[in-house]
Design goal:
Helices cover about 80% and strands about 0% of the residues. By secondary structure, the protein is mostly helical. The protein folds into 2 domains: about 90 residues, Rna Polymerase Sigma Factor, Chain: A, CATH 1.10.1740; about 70 residues, Arc Repressor Mutant, subunit A (Orthogonal Bundle), CATH 1.10.10. Helix 6 packs across helix 7 and helix 7 crosses helix 8.
């Protein structure tokens, strides 16, 4: 192909783009596509038509263009459906009122939890005051050992000993 043939082909393609762009976008928009999506689909259809014309001239460029645009639209719908299906499969299932009842703790479990909590309070209540204070600052207020040491005016190693003593008392008195 010579430069003259290439230039002629480019001019013909440009004329075709000018002539068919608006009707193609309107056609896609009439099929429910937004203006932006219709423009994107039309641009891709023109690109594919241009590539097809490189190998051999098309008998009916307009039919090829509209058919290509429709096929691209169908492909886009399929991709969107597949994407949405994937997203739905990755999302946790919605819970209904029935599910809440089904997964709520039984009265026996609720009673057992209350009893365990009462035992926990009793064990903590019997701890020496400094051990109890260190434990509650650590577990209740989420303070670090260094912050507890500052608050209680003791060393960090002393706080470690207090927390260890508290955990040991809990392990011994609360069955698992």
């Amino acid at each position: 192909m010579t430069i003259k043939d290439s230039n002629t082909q480019n001019l013909e393609f440009s004329a075709l783009v000018d002539e068919l762009s608006l009707p193609l976008v309107k056609h896609l928009a009439s099929n429910g596509w937004s203006r932006d999506d219709a423009n994107d689909l039309a641009q891709e259809a023109f690109l594919r038509m241009h590539k097809a014309q490189q190998s051999k001239p098309l008998d009916n460029a307009q039919a090829f263009l509209f058919k290509t645009a429709n096929n691209l639209a169908i492909d886009q719908i399929r991709r969107t459906r597949l994407h949405n299906k994937y997203l739905r499969s990755e999302m946790p299932p919605e819970h209904t009122e029935e599910d809440s009842y089904q997964f709520s703790p039984s009265p026996e479990r609720t009673t057992a939890a209350k009893q365990e909590l009462e035992m926990l309070y009793a064990v903590v209540g019997r701890m020496p005051i400094k051990v109890k204070r260190a434990f509650l600052l650590h577990r209740g207020r989420d303070l670090s050992y260094a912050e507890i040491a500052t608050e209680m005016s003791v060393s960090t190693s002393m706080v470690e000993k207090y927390i260890t003593e508290a955990l040991k008392a809990l392990r011994q008195e609360i069955p698992r």
